[in-house]
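Bench notes, afternoon.
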Amino acid sequence: MTTTRIRKIAASLIALALAGGIAASLPAEAATPETRYVTVNSQGSIKVTPDAVRLNANVSFVAGSNKEALAKVSTVGTAVRAALTKSGILKGDIATQSITVYPEYNYTQDKGSVLVGYRGSQSFVVTIKNAENAGAVVDAVVAAGGNELQIQGVTPFVLDASKATESARTAAVKNAKAKATSYAKLLDAKLGRVNYLVENSSPVEYSPILAMGKAADSEATVVDLGEQDVTVSITIQWSLL
């Protein structure tokens, strides 16, 4: 290799080293543009009328033996299912939650615990998809089950919340953008692109209450549906310009 070529290579390496040193000595803010952003949480809620009702019922009977108690429960349960079917409830909307049988005692101060029989029970959860017919279904179940049946809960709820959730989602984004715009204005900035959006939850809010009453002009049971909130909660981050 000639002396002239060696000198040229050395000069090039020195130039590259000087350039790297200059770049390294620049302030961080000069090398990388400053990144600013705003992150906000928001909710959107839409009120809807429930389109279904959840019925919780229990059949219970005390007899002289486990077998007799369960047989009686089965007889009453069959009558309840027939009443539900006659009221337009599909088989798939009737579910057994539990079946139990156990000895039942009566306690007295003189004799202590005395066996009085065996209690059998079967609990049902029924989805009534025609909410307007819920009162009539309750009355039919009570008539079929008699005194061995207890109504443990009648709860209106939203069976199909897809449309309401979409509306709530739109409201949540609108609220989030308004909040972010307000922060940007306070910081003398403008909103840029969206960095990310996370949907935290989209629940249907309802309280498990016994929502029944009697009609003023008859003995028929009325289930008051009321209104419930479908809510979507989100987190969005915008870059600031």
